[in-house]
Amino acid sequence: SHVAPLVPPVQVLVDGNFIHAVMSMKLGDAKDVVVKYLGAPSKLFTTRCVKEELRGMGKDLKEASFYARKLEEVKDGPDPPAPALDSIVAAVDGGNSERFIVCTQDDKLRKRLLADSPATPVVFCHTSGLQMEPPADAEGSGVASQREHGAGLTEEERNVLGQEEVVRGAAGVRTNVRYKKPKARGPNPLSVKKKVAKPPPRRSG
């Protein structure tokens, strides 16, 4: 793969809704949560557009805005009032030379990254912890390789990282240090009606 191995401190790019989610779920300091999950020293970054977006979102995101102001900004990229989403995409454009791991709750951003920067690992906040959406070309990538070698993970968690699909939004699924292996995505079992048993075939004669 063209993606270089991760070298601590791992560079992690966070957006406003990720910071807000960590706070809302009372998981602790965002940096501490990320470091614990990755099992490696990490440095958190954000963008000018993310900071500006949070400033304009009122008191509900005041704490997240204050936290974001303390983070180092990525170099270059668009200036406000460009959308925060575009600034994150720009930061990893061209092969993600800075080897950022992106932390976001934004499904639209995650889909953009999958399409435009498939080698970029994406982490999101899920119930009681963090979970990674493996990049499209995860084989040999920095995160996949490092975590395959057991950087702070159990064998069970390494199995989870090998899955192409990650369960999202299912209440009650633990995804922190000792989470259970999520099941493959499928229909909600509560919404699927049981099939009516077919009557036995009639005997001829």
UniProtKB/TrEMBL annotation:
<keyword id="KW-0539">Nucleus</keyword>
<dbReference type="GO" id="GO:0006364">
    <property type="term" value="P:rRNA processing"/>
</dbReference>
<feature type="compositionally biased region" description="Basic and acidic residues">
    <location>
        <begin position="146"/>
        <end position="159"/>
    </location>
</feature>
<dbReference type="InterPro" id="IPR057776">
    <property type="entry name" value="UTP23_sensor"/>
</dbReference>
<keyword id="KW-0690">Ribosome biogenesis</keyword>
<feature type="region of interest" description="Disordered">
    <location>
        <begin position="133"/>
        <end position="205"/>
    </location>
</feature>
<comment type="function">
    <text>Involved in rRNA-processing and ribosome biogenesis.</text>
</comment>
<dbReference type="Pfam" id="PF04900">
    <property type="entry name" value="Fcf1"/>
</dbReference>
<dbReference type="InterPro" id="IPR006984">
    <property type="entry name" value="Fcf1/UTP23"/>
</dbReference>
<protein>
    <recommendedName>
        <fullName>UTP23 sensor motif region domain-containing protein</fullName>
    </recommendedName>
</protein>
<dbReference type="InterPro" id="IPR029060">
    <property type="entry name" value="PIN-like_dom_sf"/>
</dbReference>
<feature type="compositionally biased region" description="Basic residues">
    <location>
        <begin position="192"/>
        <end position="205"/>
    </location>
</feature>
<dbReference type="GO" id="GO:0032040">
    <property type="term" value="C:small-subunit processome"/>
</dbReference>
<dbReference type="Pfam" id="PF24779">
    <property type="entry name" value="UTP23_sensor"/>
</dbReference>
<feature type="domain" description="UTP23 sensor motif region">
    <location>
        <begin position="179"/>
        <end position="196"/>
    </location>
</feature>
<comment type="similarity">
    <text>Belongs to the UTP23/FCF1 family. UTP23 subfamily.</text>
</comment>
<keyword id="KW-0698">rRNA processing</keyword>
